[in-house]
Write a structure and sequence with these properties.
Layout (H helix, E strand, L loop, with lengths): L7 H12 L10 H28 L2 H29 L5 H27 L4 H22 L8 H10 L2 H9 L4 H22 L7 H25 L3
C-alpha cells in the first residue's frame, strides 16, 4: 500500500471479499498479471466489434436480446481486465474491482442464456422459465457479493449451478426447428466453460492457470457466438 494507511473503502471491500472467502489474488507475478490482462482485454475488443456487427444484422425483434448477450459478455471481459490492471499496479482498489469481476461473471452467464431462451426457444415454456431463473440467480449472486450482511454463498458454487440449467434446454432445442448444429456449438461452448472452470479452481497448481481460464472462457463465449449468429439469428 506504499506506506499509506488503507482507506476506509479498501478496508470495507476487503472485509466484504473475505466474508465470502475471496481475496485479491495478489500472489500473481507481473508476467501472470500481464497475461491475465491480455487474455481478456483482447476478447473485450473483439466482443465489442461482434456486438455492433451482430446488432446491426439482427432483425428488430431480436436486436434487444443480441444486445443483452453482447453487452453482458463484454462487461465481463472489461471488468476482468480492469481488475487485473489494478492488480499489476498494486492499487488499493483491487478488492473493489474483484467484486465487480465476480459480479460480471454472473452477468456473463445469464446473458449467455438469453439468445437461446428468448430467440431459439421463444415460444417454449422451458426457455422462458430458464431465462427468468438464471437472471434471478445472477441478481442473487451480485447481491451476495456486495452486501456483507446477506447469507454468503461463494460465487464458485453458484456459477456451475447456473450453467447446469443449460442441460434443460437441450431437449427442447432438439424438438424445435433450430438447426442441430446450433445445439452442437452450444455443447462445445459448454465444454470449454467446464474445462475453464476446472482451471479456475486449480489455477494455483497450473502455470498461468488464471490466464488459461480466461482464454477458455473467451473460447467458450465465441463458440456460442458463432452458433448463435449462424444457426439462431441466421439458419445457415
Amino acid at each position: 500500500m506504499n506506506g499509506k494507511k488503507p482507506s476506509a473503502m479498501y478496508s470495507q471491500t476487503c472485509a466484504m471479499c473475505q466474508a465470502f472467502g475471496s481475496n485479491d489474488k495478489s500472489e500473481y507475478t507481473w508476467n501472470e498479471q500481464f497475461a491475465n490482462i491480455v487474455s481478456h482485454a483482447v476478447p473485450a475488443i473483439i466482443s465489442i466489434l461482434l456486438t455492433l456487427h451482430t446488432y446491426n444484422q439482427a432483425a428488430p425483434q431480436e436486436s434487444t436480446y443480441v444486445l443483452i448477450y453482447g453487452v453482458g459478455i463484454t462487461i465481463c471481459f472489461i471488468c476482468s481486465s480492469i481488475y487485473h490492471v489494478a492488480g499489476i499496479m498494486k492499487s488499493e482498489w483491487v478488492p473493489f474491482f474483484l467484486m465487480f469481476d465476480y459480479s460480471a461473471i454472473f452477468v456473463n452467464i445469464a446473458a449467455s442464456f438469453t439468445p437461446w431462451t428468448k430467440m431459439a426457444l421463444a415460444e417454449h415454456v422451458v426457455g422462458t422459465l430458464v431465462f427468468y431463473v438464471v437472471w434471478l440467480m445472477a441478481a442473487f449472486g451480485i447481491y451476495n457479493v456486495f452486501f456483507k450482511h446477506f447469507p454468503k454463498t461463494k460465487p464458485e458454487t453458484l456459477y456451475p449451478v447456473m450453467v447446469s440449467f443449460s442441460l434443460l434446454l437441450i431437449y427442447p432445442l432438439y424438438l424445435s426447428d433450430i438447426n442441430y448444429q446450433a445445439i452442437a456449438w452450444m455443447a462445445v461452448g459448454l465444454f470449454w466453460f467446464i474445462v475453464g472452470f476446472v482451471c479456475f479452481v486449480k489455477e494455483k497448481k497450473i502455470s498461468y492457470g488464471h490466464a488459461l481460464f480466461h482464454t477458455l472462457v473467451a473460447v467458450g463465449n465465441f463458440t456460442h457466438w458463432y452458433g448463435i449468429y449462424n444457426h439462431v439469428i441466421y439458419d445457415n
